[in-house]
Every structure is written in C-alpha cells, then in structure tokens.
Amino acid sequence: xxxxxxxxxxxxxxxxxxxxxxxxxxxxxxxxxxxxxxxxxxxxxxxxxxxxxxxxxxxxxxxxxxxxxxxxxxxxxxxxxxxxxxxxxxxxxxxxxxxxxxxxxxxxx
Length: 109
Description:
The chain is built from four helices and five strands, in the order E-H-E-E-E-H-E-H-H. The chain is an alpha/beta fold and 109 residues long. Helix 2 crosses helix 4 (92-106).
C-alpha cells in the first residue's frame, strides 16, 4: 500500500494541478493517482496560521480519523486534506458529514 504523500514536490503538484473542494472544516485537493489499480495516497496539512502545535496536531488527527472512517486511501486518487480552524472544535459527526459531502462532490466516494 502506498498510503501517505510524503515529498514536498508531490504536495506542490497537488496544490498546482489538483482540483479543489472546500467545506467548513477542510479544503480537499485531489488528482487521479498515477496507477489507478493501487490505493491512492493521502496527506493531512494544518498550517501555522491555525494556531500552536497542539492545535495543528489535533486538526490533523481529526482529519486522519475521519478519512479513515470514510475509507481512505481511495483507489485511483491522491488527496491532500488542508485543515480549517473549525475542524479542531467541530463535533465528529459534523466533520464526517462535511468531508463525506466534499469527497462525494469530488467524485471520490
């Protein structure tokens, strides 16, 4: 399993070439994976403007768990989840609903 997007170049490729879908808790950047037979990869980003390190870590943990519940990684897609401040304090059900809606809009689910 490929699993995680790790290099800065791969993340930059998604930012420059990927399509975007936004919700109240996160922005999702996605591109079809290079090999559509393998599971895609995911990355979770929480920028410094969100707050201190514990808050950013919480945002990433919430997004990772929500993505896992929704079936990540998805075959045929590389996806970057970019946290918004609301993800840290939103109820789990709200995060799940918003990310599910965004992934449906993107055609991933």
